[in-house]
Amino acid sequence: MIIIPTKYFKKKVSKLPKSIKLKLAKRIHLFMSEQKNIILNNHQLNGKYSGYRSINITGDYRVIFEELEDGSVRLIDIDTHPNLYQ
């Protein structure tokens, strides 16, 4: 699987605390090998994020992504649950 982070996603990651960056790296590694692992809570989104999916990074942090037709994944956003879904 190919992971394609957007510029916006990279910018958001650069501002995260180191502990969240480490957890993100571990979860992306897990996601690449097991997209449907229960720990990730990979699920379809509705509303303003209709057509996108989300995975859990921590109890509060989420990554929003888009599955592309070629099987690759575009990482759209990362933030806390309240900040993403307000």
| Low confidence ranges | none
**Count of helical regions:** 3
| Largest sheet geometry | 5 strands, mixed
Q: What fraction of the residues are assigned to beta strands by DSSP?
A: 25-35%
Specify the CATH architecture. 2-Layer Sandwich
- Give, in order, the helices and strands: EHHEEEEH
Strand neighbour order, sheet with most strands: 1-5-4-3-2
CATH level 4 superfamily: RelE-like
**3D shape:** globular
| Overall domain count | 1
Report the radius of gyration as a whole number of Å.
12 Å
**Tally of DSSP β-strands:** 5
Mean pLDDT: 95
Write the layout of secondary structure elements.
Blueprint: E1 3-5, H1 7-14, H2 18-33, E2 43-44, E3 53-56, E4 61-67, E5 73-80, H3 81-84
Parallel strand pairs: 1-5
Antiparallel strand pairs: 2-3, 3-4, 4-5
Keywords: Toxin-antitoxin system
Protein name: Addiction module toxin RelE
InterPro entries: RelE/ParE_toxin (IPR007712), RelE/ParE_toxin_dom_sf (IPR035093), Toxin_YafQ-like (IPR004386)
Describe the fold and architecture.
A hairpin with a 5-residue loop joins β4 and β5. This protein has a single domain (3-84), classed as YaeB-like fold. The protein has helices at 7-14, 18-33, 81-84, and strands spanning 3-5, 43-44, 53-56, 61-67, 73-80. The model has no long low-confidence stretch (mean pLDDT 95). By secondary structure, it is α+β, with helices and mostly antiparallel strands. The chain is built from three helices and five strands, in the order βααββββα. The longest helix is centred in the N-terminal third of the chain and has 16 residues, at 18-33. Helix content is 33%, strand content 28%.
